[in-house]
Amino acid sequence: MYEHFRFGVSNFLRFIVSFVLFVVCYSIIYFPSWCQEEADRKELKKEHLIAKGVVSDINSKYNEMTYFFVVNGKKYDGNSGYSEWSEKYGRIPIVGDSVSVCYKKDNPKVNMLLEYLNHEYVLIRKWVKVLYLKWAQ
């Protein structure tokens, strides 16, 4: 009986170590993009303008969409997840759908969907926000 218990504990510990290793690796890979997104969000909260954009591509494998919008005759692109948009409109976006894009007045390359401007993430991305805000000061 003790052998079965020990075998079960070692499998459980392997699972925990594997899970922690996965979370750490995932965080290391995506940390720079998450920090950039938080920097953009912080800048846009200070001052932003809103433009009408159009969905130009959908990547349902990663729940992402690409959109474009025009400012002063120049076309700008953006990329975003679509979970908040889907929650608001009750469906997955399709190419040609309209989106509201907030952008920085003097640099429209800094942009995001309006639905994500005040979006709060949970768990892993929450600590990224805390770390980023501490480092940015």
For the residues shown, what is the average pLDDT?
A: 82
Shape label = globular
Taking the sheet with the most strands, its summary is: 5 strands, antiparallel
Quaternary assembly: single chain
Question: Helix/strand-derived class?
Answer: alpha+beta
- Strand numbers in spatial order across the main sheet: 3-2-1-4-5
N- to C-terminal separation? Answer: 57 Å
Radius of gyration: 20 Å
Would you count the extended β strands for me?
Answer: 5
Helical residues, percent: 40-55%
Q: What amount of the residues lies in strands?
A: 25-35%
User: What string, H for helix and E for strand, traces the elements in order?
Assistant: HEEEHEEH
Give unreliable regions as ranges.
none
Quickly count the helices: 3
Can you describe what's shown?
This protein is an alpha+beta fold and 137 residues long. The chain is built from 3 helices and 5 strands; from the N terminus they run H-E-E-E-H-E-E-H. The chain has a 5-stranded antiparallel beta sheet. Strand 1 and strand 2 form a beta hairpin. The chain is globular and about 60 Å long.
